[in-house]
Amino acid sequence: MKNIKIFKYLILLILIYSCDNVTSPEIKEDPGDSDLQYEYLINLNGLNTGNYFNLCTLTWNQYINENFQSYTLRNNSEVIVINEQNQDTILIRELMPETFEKIYIDVLAESIQTDSIEIYTRPIKPITNFDAAANAENWYSTLTWAPSEEINTQFEKYNIYRSDLNANNFILIGEINNQTDSSYVDTVTTWGYDYYYKVDTHTIEGYSRRSVIQSNIIDSIKAYTINLNTTNNQHNKVNISWTHDLLGEQNFYAIEIWRTNSQTEDPLNNYLLATITDYNKNILEDSYLIGNGISWFYKLKLIDKFGNVSYSSIESGNSLP
């Protein structure tokens, strides 16, 4: 019995000793939501910028964390405050054709984040492939063209103009109300005279776009140098800039900016990004469905008032990943 008691006593000592030396497991504290990093990128985008002459749809990423207060959209003259956190789209209406406008968005939550893009509207679509030719028998001038591709519900008329003073001081000589018409004969002419013509496309809202100028006997042939540059230092954007040696606003017609995402394709065979009709504008911020970390390839087409065309080289640009 005495031995049994001693044995039990030893077991008890061993258990007590073991308990004193037990190492408790390390319990990690819950960091809580306050320590989680929520990386939010606004990515303001003009969903259809350049596709319409009077509107643009803006989209952005929703702010999904707590403490949201508002989205504020602004330009130089207007402020729109949106308090609905789930909203991520707004349609901007009543813009003018050939408008280029910087739009900012402020997202107010625990702090303020800001993003911006340049949105733009296209010009009215003019007639294309315009030509004028004098008839050797009676000197009537026959004008031909490809009809305007403007939305037919917006089309109002073509106005046809003539000048006999070196493509200045045009006078209205005709009006056509059918959009699909593609020719006109000028019979009020004098034998041997050099006449210049242009055709303006008008919409029911009072907007218009002129064609290039064509002579009935003289072909004006000129070539220009146009240089294209791109920058690659922003998210969701590529900045495009250019210079050229076409002198004088009166001699300028347009610059077309073409884009592709294929390194082996001529951009002229892909997408017309924008048409610039402002002689003094020489930079464009491309954010149209641009994405992050994607390479794009650009080419410019310079057109003078007589329809002479010159091209830039192809330049690449990409937004930051």
Structural commentary:
- The structure is a single chain.
- This protein is mainly beta.
- The chain has three domains: 36-120, Immunoglobulins (Immunoglobulin-like), CATH 2.60.40.10; 128-215, Immunoglobulin-like, CATH 2.60.40.10; 226-318, Immunoglobulins (Immunoglobulin-like, Sandwich).
- It is built from one helix and 23 strands.
- It has one helix at 2-20; strands spanning 45-46, 56-59, 70-74, 79-82, 89-92, 100-108, 112-120, 128-134, 141-146, 155-163, 171-176, 183-186, 196-203, 208-210, 214-215, 226-231, 238-244, 252-260, 271-276, 283-286, 295-304, 309-311, 315-318.
- Strands 10, 11, 13, 14 and 15 form a five-stranded antiparallel beta sheet that branches.
- β8 (128-134) and β9 form a beta hairpin.
- It is elongated.
- It starts with a helix and ends with a strand.
